[in-house]
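Example 9 (inverse folding). The structure is encoded as follows.
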């Protein structure tokens, strides 16, 4: 009987730790942040934003993307991040359509956007690497 009680205590300890660890490290922090976010919305207090936002670089690989390139650039420009802190590098991987004319149309439509066009005819990997080396932001 004594061994049965010892085994029961050990198994209960094992399963209690398996239940306790997710509760402590996942469920409680999630509930806390959810409460904090919703409580700030109830009080109409905006969540704190950093005082200085970093510049970001977005790399758009292009291969015969005439139909979607302008819409992609437009969706990036229309987000809530400051426009002067977004650098878009469009990397052309030997396209055979009018992707460059869509890039030109985007430059005219969004004059405040930081757009850069790079031609790379050596494959996708080299095209992306050349864009990474030419980026300014993070």
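The amino acid assigned to each position is listed next.
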């Amino acid at each position: 009987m004594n061994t049965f009680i010892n085994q029961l205590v050990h198994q209960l300890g094992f399963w209690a730790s398996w239940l306790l660890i997710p509760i402590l490290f996942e469920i409680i922090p999630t509930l806390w942040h959810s409460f904090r976010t919703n409580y700030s919305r109830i009080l109409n207090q905006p969540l704190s934003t950093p005082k200085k936002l970093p510049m970001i670089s977005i790399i758009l690989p292009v291969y015969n993307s005439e139909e979607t390139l302008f819409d992609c650039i437009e969706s990036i420009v229309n987000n809530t991040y400051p426009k002067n802190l977004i650098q878009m590098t469009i990397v052309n991987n030997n396209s055979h359509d009018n992707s460059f004319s869509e890039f030109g149309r985007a430059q005219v439509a969004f004059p405040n956007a930081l757009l850069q066009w790079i031609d790379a005819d050596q494959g996708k990997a080299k095209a992306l690497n050349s864009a990474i080396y030419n980026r300014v932001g993070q």
